Task: inverse folding
């Protein structure tokens, strides 16, 4: 089967800066794909390469089997929802949504009807006569979404689309985007620096760092079985354990990762486990995050709220299930 | 000390402000009054009598019409050139980064900062050097040098406020470069261009110094006026023309001010 988007050894260098460096990537049709990474990791440049705003320095990109290098953005069947929405302030909402059809020469009645339908799809029916300036951030976001979807793109690109929204709205939009993608069956490629967002929405996640993809996999793969220290730390702030420590518990001299929620904390002073000292507690509502010091190794544990805890500075005993200790491929 | 908004200004300050305004605008009013005087050889105060005959006289003077028509054509064409070049230059400076960007920005503004006499002499020697005879087009070129600045200043301020991703969004939605310019860029800079164009027109219309250096035998309205003052003949005709010039320059400037008053444009009308 042809991939929706395929990168073969794609690089994009800006002078001496390797924004994207020899990236291989296959995105399947109909997939909800997230590109996750810190700022400056190359994820947005990858999105812009798909959209056509950037051209690769080396390598080849194809979109549904068609070579994309040298094809300008306006000749790609790909649409983008921009981070700042980039709505046209001089047009009303309906004309904004109908813009793509207008420049393609679709008749007025037909394109306004399609735009009205797209607005209903994003649950903003009847907002067509307003100006973008009269809408809230969440509404603008929906208009930007409708403006892209009305063109029936093969791939929809979303550049940190939820970044400017407040928490409640963001959670609603996450669910909505996901169900919209299921209904439409369009390939969504989604850029975010928020690991929670990537894990909750995407079918597959690519973790970027320094212009390279560190790992591609399902949210569960990425979270449970990170292959490098970077992924373990960036996705869900796992405890990264040095090879010497890991060897004591697994017998293998490799880097390991241990999820904070896999660690059990008891106030026993003897017995099996890792002796540590409680150095800080951080109340998070449903859970409490503990900072622990195990003989110089800084660990974090997340325990359910209400767990009885010794006071800060006291000795504690840490236990965990051997299965939850994940060994990473990265060389020690 | 607090300054309450409701507090009345002291009388002395009010008188000083009134005097300042009178000093600025009384001479202009005098010009209007002398347009109606019955005395034709010299300006005497008070006017011996009032008449509207000079309007008819002016209407029938072909030299007035020649000067007016030349001025309007020069202003229109200089403004048109300035609109194209100023917009292109503003787009380049504000949308892209390249080596020497700041220098170009400064060089474009320079003609309006330099005294007009320098621009005039420079253009005159350049035309002489290149063996270009003085004509309508040399005046237009001279005026375009400072008209470009006004348009550029207005356009660059507007471009700065326009989100760069809007152009990308337009391309993304299937519009090529020309469609993007027509449907997105132009509507967003239109009022800035209108304001800049009107200021450019007004500047060109009353320009004297550069024109004296770049004109051949033709007379634009301001040059014609200077000539009239030296050779007194039907003097109030000059005043009638002056009234027209004041109106022709004032109305566009007021309109431009109205269009851009809530923006952050730099008008650059220091000429």
Result:
């Amino acid at each position: 089967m042809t991939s929706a988007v395929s990168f073969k050894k794609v690089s994009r260098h800006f002078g001496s800066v390797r924004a994207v460096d020899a990236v291989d990537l296959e995105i399947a049709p109909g997939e909800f794909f997230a590109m996750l990474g810190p700022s400056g990791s190359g994820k947005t440049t990858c999105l812009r390469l798909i959209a056509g705003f950037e051209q690769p320095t080396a390598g080849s990109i194809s979109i549904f089997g068609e070579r994309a290098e040298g094809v300008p953005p306006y000749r790609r069947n790909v649409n983008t929802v921009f981070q700042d929405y980039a709505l046209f302030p001089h047009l009303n909402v309906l004309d904004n949504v109908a813009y793509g059809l207008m420049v393609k020469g679709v008749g007025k009645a037909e394109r306004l009807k399609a735009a009205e339908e797209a607005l209903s799809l994003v649950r903003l029916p009847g907002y067509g006569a307003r100006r973008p300036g009269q809408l809230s951030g969440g509404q603008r976001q929906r208009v930007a979404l409708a403006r892209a979807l009305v063109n029936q793109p093969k791939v929809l690109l979303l550049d940190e689309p939820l970044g400017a929204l407040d928490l409640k709205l963001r959670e609603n939009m996450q669910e909505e985007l996901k169900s919209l993608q299921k209904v439409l069956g369009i390939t969504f490629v989604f850029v975010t620096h928020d690991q929670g967002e990537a894990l909750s929405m995407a079918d597959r996640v690519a973790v970027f760092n320094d212009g390279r993809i560190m790992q591609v996999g399902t949210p569960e793969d990425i979270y449970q079985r990170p292959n490098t220290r970077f992924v373990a730390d960036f996705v869900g702030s796992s405890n990264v354990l040095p090879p010497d420590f890991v060897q004591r518990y697994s017998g293998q001299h490799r880097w390991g990762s241990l999820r904070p929620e896999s660690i059990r904390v008891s106030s026993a002073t003897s017995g099996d486990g890792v002796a540590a000292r409680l150095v800080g507690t951080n109340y998070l509502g449903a859970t409490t995050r503990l900072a622990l010091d195990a003989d110089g190794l800084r660990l974090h544990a997340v325990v359910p709220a209400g767990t009885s805890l010794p006071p800060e500075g006291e000795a504690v005993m840490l236990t965990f299930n051997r299965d939850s200790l994940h060994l990473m491929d990265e060389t020690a | 000390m607090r300054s309450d908004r409701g507090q009345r200004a002291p009388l002395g300050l009010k008188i000083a402000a009134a005097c300042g305004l009178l000093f600025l605008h009384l001479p202009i009013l005098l010009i209007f009054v002398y347009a109606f005087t019955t005395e034709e050889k010299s300006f005497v105060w008070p006017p011996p009598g009032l008449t509207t005959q000079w309007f008819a006289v002016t209407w029938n003077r072909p030299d007035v019409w020649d000067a007016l028509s030349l001025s309007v054509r020069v202003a229109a064409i200089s403004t048109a050139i300035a609109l194209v070049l100023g917009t292109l230059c503003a787009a380049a400076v504000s949308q892209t980064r390249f080596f020497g960007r700041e220098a170009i920005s400064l060089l474009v503004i320079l003609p309006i900062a330099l005294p007009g006499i320098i621009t005039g002499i420079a253009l005159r020697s350049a035309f002489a050097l290149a063996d270009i005879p003085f004509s309508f087009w040399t005046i237009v070129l001279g005026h375009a040098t400072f008209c470009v600045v006004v348009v550029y200043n207005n356009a660059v301020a507007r471009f700065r406020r326009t989100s760069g991703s809007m152009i990308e969004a337009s391309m993304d939605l299937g519009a090529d470069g020309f469609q993007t310019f027509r449907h997105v860029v132009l509507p967003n800079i239109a009022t800035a261009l209108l304001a800049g164009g009107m200021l450019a027109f007004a500047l060109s219309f009353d320009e004297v110094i550069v024109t004296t250096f770049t004109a051949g035998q033709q007379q634009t309205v301001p040059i014609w006026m200077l000539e009239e003052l030296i050779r007194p003949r039907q003097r109030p005709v000059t005043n009638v023309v002056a009234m027209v010039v004041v109106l022709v320059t004032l109305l566009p400037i007021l309109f431009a001010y109205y269009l851009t008053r809530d923006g952050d444009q730099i008008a650059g009308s220091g000429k």
Q: What stands out?
A: Chain A touches chain B through 26 residues (CB under 8 Å). The CA atoms of residues 45 and 83 of chain A lie 13 Å apart.
